[in-house]
């Protein structure tokens, strides 16, 4: 029994009373200040009479200070004359049926009634006492829900008992519970509850709301608050469930709660609006469940009535018929009341809040309406409610769009509801298809899953074009999107199986049911025309089509076996595609991670996944150890097929060759690889053979010796053949013919490919390659391909020698021999930098950059000081040649490097390939700059190209700037100003000294300077010394060349000060003064008086230094900020103990002008520029003009609201056809429903539950409220100052989902 029924006053007193009591469902539950005796805890749930003695202490008593003792007596309930109790049974009786009160307030006769009976003298004191006790009780209810530990049903049952005792006090507790759940510290008193309207109470609570914090329970962080939302929703659901048989029909509790939540949902305070909307929507969901139960009971009652009435008169029970009629009447009345309640919530809350300005509130509304339609489809699953979901799919926030899709998924999942969704599907199908390209990946995933459900419900709904829009997403870089698209693809093309396939389920190989599905997969892959992305296609379908993709026996049979009678054989192109897909499936099974770009990194496999991986590798090895030699023999002359097939042994479990007694198949495989090496000269094929030997030559397995012998024999033959051919090829006096050159080249290709993965040092290939390259330099007629591969092979020789001396204890002779070979090789590469052939020069440049990088001072890092003799620093001539190569071969126009003439498509492909090659060349040289292998000032020629080639190399140049600044800020600044000086000198050479400063060339240099200035960032302290040094070099350059005509004419480079002024904003205030003093050293008195145009650069530069720096008379070396310095400078701790340098001393020495190195602040390591990953282009799907069905809602003129700015965005996926989200929280509570009905009839429909299946007296569902007369052609709606032109169709094709009809009027 709730303690609120007892008045608590100061002091100590005891009360004795007897009343009827129903034992608690949860014996362990107790209120603060009361303890239940063990006797009561063990009592059965039955109606008992208790004698309750309560002993109270003073205010603020603890739980242990109050005790309740209960004794079972046999007497009738009565109240002593000196208590404030009265008989409440009459008060709680039902007053009669009626419409739900919109405001939920008591009538005039009820306002005087309270717990103490209106006019009793003790009333005021009692209410004041209750207010104190209510604070404890209300806190208790909120705390219980917040903790979520107690059984919610027990909490609700206790509140129901309190309500039965005194409904005003219980409702006051519930009201304060909702207020407190909103984060409001205010308390609604009994006096406020009795005498104030809801709007006044809400206004009062708004004033007491804590405005300092924007957090409230639904948005607070922490584990305690994460459970609060679920506990809060559970409380509301249990409350309605426990009250569904009596209390919700008393026309008081639900009226009050609905009225309160409606008013709060209209509040300007977000916390009130959010919390009350959630409560109202959950309340509506609970009522929908009650209505559904009522409908079921009515159907059952009607069926029983019909069965009883159909009996013969002798067996018919008239009393039972009357009882069934009475029961049906009561159920009908209850259902009418539930309809009224749901109408009040729907009209008062949903139709406003589903378009609230807060996305969370809109999401709540859409989520709940989806539950209503799924739970009670007979009443809610119709176009009148589906339209809200359809409109909201155009919401600007992905969270809301996501709720729309998940709500629809629940509906489409039930195939019995498909007939009711046909019209909605036809209207909003295009929108759902377009959402597969949503900018929010979560939304795109759910849109694809929804289309999959639509596909399963009816394949005719989606057109071929719709399906194709989803198909291409299997190649998306975002894995969840690709997996969802893969499932859609599988359901559409692979899940159907003919009846005749059921009889061949146990067949294997080419006759298995998967054979046709594998062919279908190949056809799809070829038709998608993305032949390099088979790995992404396989990964997309891996989860849903595992059995199909792992049927390697079927795939190999399709490749090896002859086609059956009447079966079309696979074409050459289809066989190549099948081999590529088979390779990708084997790789995915063996590695257990998605391809590059699809995953966030390798994850730890579970025990089950590891077991599956081992089983798959065993299956792959057992199958392809036998089949692979046969496949290689069949396709040995096809380079593309052989290249893919040769990758399979990398995923074998090599132990099975021994345990499975498959050595003969290993020998067959080695013979096939040897034959392929002899037949092919293609680099890809030869490298695949080399990698296969490398995978098989694993010393951990017993097959190592067998494979090593085969490999050594092959290399011996190749080396002997190469030496023999080379001796004949290089004979003096004889001109080599083409056959000899081809033989040398093919053998050299094979050796180079094997040297990439295998150490061939014992064959001493350096000497013969050096002889070949030396001859090429002397004669100049060596074929370019021979030179390219000879350079590459020699490079491998050097690297293998380095690995050898690094890993093992090498002698001094080994280091000296490697040093000599490396230096000789660098000289050869340097010679080939001037070769006439571009391919040779590019190869020599790339190898030179690699060798210089490897043998730089970095080689000694990690404790490898013994390698110091190998360090090689390029001389100035080599650095100059490398830089010249970059300027001549990288910074060129696209057309200059494009030699393709095979059509526009090939032309574009060749341009992209050429650009990629040039970017690699530039990156190789920039790496030398970053690691200080070459001088940093060589970067000036790179930096000056930043603007001109920004689209092609901007990211590389910017990253180089960033890295060089981390190494040495001052030297980097000097390099930047040097690049500007070079551009300035180039302009002078072209245009002379009398150039136009408004010319594009000079403006381009100024813009480049501005871009350089932006790269220094906002923290001026970190770049202080570098910026000062930059200005120093710039000033010296500007006054470096005096004018031959005398001092009355400006220096020749004076215009450079105009460029230098772009960096003035990066100077600190005190540094501006220092730079200005340094500038005055170069100026004469006459210069300061000049005002001609030619002196404008000097004047503008002086003004840029004087801006904000005139009041700063302190030297920069003093480190003391002036009073006019910035806030940032004020926060900087001033340097102490530094001597102030007088201006006279400053002007006499430039060394005293600049910051000492010790004073400069170190620049922290700058973050690396994030890398960009290529993804599927996600362009918004533009809807057709006749699909622009989103509108706005008209506001009534009498409200005098300001025009609303809908903030329509530009070209984004969600911006074209969305309904504007209008926050109508400014609408007053008074007359809101009436205003709504006046202008928004389409939103304020009455909820009319469907009639019982066998009930004749119920009317049909109300007709649709769409008015055909309101549909007009080329109508124009003026809404709050916005003129919106809309296009409507004839009645037959009218878009009756459009919300525009609400703002149209009949002309």
Automatic annotation (TrEMBL):
Annotated region (Disordered), positions in chain: 82-132, 1118-1152
One Pfam annotation, family name?
Answer: STAG
Q: Which SUPFAM superfamilies match?
A: ARM repeat (SSF48371)
Q: Report the main location listed first in the record.
A: nucleus
Q: Where is the composition biased (Basic residues)?
A: 94-106, 1128-1139
Q: Where in the cell is the protein located?
A: Nucleus; Chromosome; Chromosome, Centromere
Biased segments, Polar residues type: 1118-1127
Look up the domain of life of the source. Eukaryota
InterPro entries per UniProt: ARM-type_fold, Cohesin_Scc3/SA, HEAT_SCC3-SA, SCD, STAG
Coiled-coil stretches:
291-344
SCD domain sequence ranges: 350-435
> Keywords assigned by UniProt?
Cell cycle, Cell division, Chromosome, Chromosome partition, Coiled coil, Nucleus
Q: How does it assemble?
A: Part of the cohesin complex which is composed of a heterodimer between a SMC1 protein (SMC1A or SMC1B) and SMC3, which are attached via their hinge domain, and RAD21 which link them at their heads, and one STAG protein.
Please give the family membership noted in the entry: Belongs to the SCC3 family.
Describe the function of this protein: Component of cohesin complex, a complex required for the cohesion of sister chromatids after DNA replication. The cohesin complex apparently forms a large proteinaceous ring within which sister chromatids can be trapped. At anaphase, the complex is cleaved and dissociates from chromatin, allowing sister chromatids to segregate.
Protein name in the entry: Cohesin subunit SA
Question: Which source organism?
Answer: Willisornis vidua (Xingu scale-backed antbird)
Q: What is the lineage of its organism?
A: Eukaryota, Metazoa, Chordata, Craniata, Vertebrata
